[in-house]
Amino acid sequence: MLTTLATLVAVSLTLQQGEGRGEGRGQGGGSGDTTVAVQSGARLDVNNFGGEIVVHTWNQNNVKVRSSHSSRSRVDVSTSASTVLVRTAGRRGPPSIVDLDITVPTWMAMSLSGTYTDISVDGAGGAVTAESVQGDIEVTGGTGNVALKSVEGGVTLAKTKGRIEVNSVEGDITITDAGPSTATSFSPASTRSTSTSTRWTATSRTTARSRRAAATGWRPTTATWRW
Q1: β-pair partners for 33
Q2: Which of 34, 69, 211, 227 could cysteine-pair with 73, CB 3.0–4.6 Å?
Q3: Are 38 and 79 in contact (CB under 8 A)?
Q4: Per-domain residue ranges of the chain
Q5: Please, are residues 38 and 62 in contact by the beta-carbon 8 Å criterion?
Q6: Taking a C-beta distance cutoff of 8 angstroms, is the pair 68, 9 a contact?
């Protein structure tokens, strides 16, 4: 998925305390490590064109952002009372691969997105929105609204509570340990699935591709759960 993008090199992030902003300044090598304090109720908003977004949680009211990328790219981190905003950009044209490793408070809600991007979240205690065009999404935890979508990648969700919306056009969907629930929307009809109170699995990658090739009315795989 990401082989056409540039080779990874580490760069550093610097934090401009007066403005509440940080920016990756790559001149060939190094590592980035930026930590900002946040208030209760703040949310994380990340967009990464290509690479990885990996989110961990801890019991501190701080957000730590680590990054590695080539000198062609930069990472901008900005903060306000309500939001920590993380963006990747190219110095000339689209950025190359950028890998983001972010640690946030357990309670923090987050919105994560990318194009050629794999997204992973572990231990989320707030709402989670994650979307990728060509990348896998894996989330453990989440409460309230949990919405996950990948066009050409699998989606895995575990140990979550709340209202779930999961969509994959050409990937597998796996939901485990979600508690009592009801699948309220699901397609295509030919997709194999099993459903219990603790596990629900939809496998659509092979089915979707074969149905599309045969032009037999394929539709995306969608599952919506509420309890």
Answers
A1: 66
A2: 69
A3: yes
A4: 32-62+94-226
A5: yes
A6: yes
Residue with tokens 């990658």: 205
pLDDT surpassing 90 at residue 13: no
Interatomic CA distance for residues 27 and 10, integer angstroms: 9
Question: Which residue has tokens 């709402």?
Answer: 127
CB crowding 122-151: b at 16 or more within 10 Å, else e:
ebbbbbbbbbbbbbbbbbbbbbeebbbbbb
Predicted confidence (pLDDT) at residue 25 exceeds the cutoff of 80: no
Is the model more confident about 210 or about 89?
89
State the residue for tokens 């610097």.
Answer: 14
Distance CA 189, CA 165 (A): 18
Distances from the Cα of 172 to the Cαs of 112, 115, 186, in angstroms? 20, 18, 13
Q: Look up the pTM and report it.
A: 0.73
